[in-house]
Give the backbone structure.
Amino acid sequence: MILPSASAASLVLTSLTALAYAAPAAARLSPVAARRAVVLAWLLHGALLGWSLLGEAPRFGFAPALSVTVWLVAAVYAIESQLYPQLQTRWALSILGAGAVVLALLYPGQPLHARASAWLPLHWALGIASYGLFAVAVVHAVLMLRSEERIRQAADPHSGLPLLTLERLTFRFVGAGFVLLSATLLAGFLFDEQLYGSAWKWNHKTVFSVLSWLVFAVLLLGRARFGWRGWRAARLLFTGAGLLLLAYVGSRFVLEIILQRPMS
């Protein structure tokens, strides 16, 4: 836990960001005010991420990776909430956002090596972007399953986005995430020695990443050829997202917190 060594700027930005994220869940805000609070939190969160990478000695680890992922999810919400005002995700985003920024303050990761390849940030950006897109897909899949349940129970059909819209958005995000994940794996396979100073190796991160890629490939193939939807598609999405979470965040958590080994 690195809280005592955190700078005053990090503490202030983290506090403001967490409060902005928590506002929609802690107070009875109107939908418009809640959306504005999330947008404000997203802007503060971006400033916090920029400060952690540029204003101080660069560090990275499992908690900052989660923080960037949540920031990407908030970015998508900020855009979608303008297009679909009835989108109902701000409570979950409030909890995830506040928790992610506090966790990144407590566990900022380990210093990045100065000898790291100049291409390493791009490689990480591709990987984290795929994390974010799959996280957004998971959120939409949960809303899709809720919508299906409301239809079965003959509940109010207007309390959220239409089922077909949620389904379409879910698979669009899965497709975009799959493209970025493929690019990340390909870059790692072709340029691992330049990126990390060692040749491609089958470690836990690689195995879980490839397994998640295979699961998402099966999901997209099943969707295209057999029209998979509902729980059948959601199970594969959740499985692939879980494997991808274990690939970097899970392995880094074990190395950084449990085993306390330096990042490779």
